[in-house]
Amino acid sequence: MNWLTNKVLPKFRQLTAKQDTPDNLWIKCPGCGQMLFHNDLETNQNVCHHCEHHMRVGPTERFRALFDDAKYDVIELPEVPADPLKFRDSKKYTERLKDARSKTGDRDAMIVAHGRITDNPAVVAVQNFDFMGGSLGLAVGEAIVAASKLAILQKAPLILFSAAGGARMQEGILSLMQMPRTTVAIQRLKESNLPFIVVLTDPTTGGVTASYAMLGDIQISEPGALICFAGPRVIEETIREVLPEGFQRAEFLLDHGMLDMVVHRLDLRVTLARLIDLMGNRIKDAVIAEETKPVELAVVAESVEEDAPKDLKAAE
After folding, report:
1. At what angle do helices 280-307 and 268-278 cross, to 10 degrees?
2. Which residues contact 314 (CB under 8 A, 6 or more apart)?
3. β-pair partners for 77
4. I want to staple 157 with a disulfide (CB 3.0 to 4.6 A). Which of 73, 110, 195, 228 is the partner?
């Protein structure tokens, strides 16, 4: 019986044992409830094959889908105070930051990268909703300022993907101060005649909507994205009325003139590339103006000298 117990039985148990399968092989679509194989979902850029529901994606997925040959460089962003107000609710703010960084692998809610889109230089900033709801704080403000400076330095358009629940309450007034600060950064970009394109993704709400997310030269959104300051539930409870179907969704805002276009995620790279090409004249004009500025000043100086009265020249 020893050979049965020691050899045959263990092999039989090994063959009949239940195989462990990864938990993330199948993902349930939040839109239609269908189970989607994760490889198929990744190939389709996290868009459901059945209902076209656009799931949330992080900065890495955005960069790989957007830049030529998925090649890009992530810039190092300035350090900010970790917990300037020593805030604590049910847990310390520093602990929340630690959990978010462990979950996402990022320092904060916005990542900035630069590369080429159809051989045109571009700076892209992506807000990550998985990092504390993509909330606007000191770090996000610094990221947008840094992205704006880099775009001006490279004479490149700035493309920003917004996804946020609003300002970060743990930073109080310091987070609200980022609203005018980012607005000034975008204004400097526009003064340099460089395009600022905003892609609003689900959800874009609160102070983000009230600042840089609505300042784009061109406003694009993904289908079905929630875009608002206060959410539909809050508005319904305040005015005590039933809101129209699809209220504050991308298609509703497009119909009411708040957006320029709603673009499917699979068509986003082609659309952005076309827009950069069309707006490229602004970039070229800015570069030409800067390069010819010293020449123009020299020409003006010569013409002034030639047109000066003879008596003035004799006096000199």
Report:
1. 10
2. none
3. none
4. 195
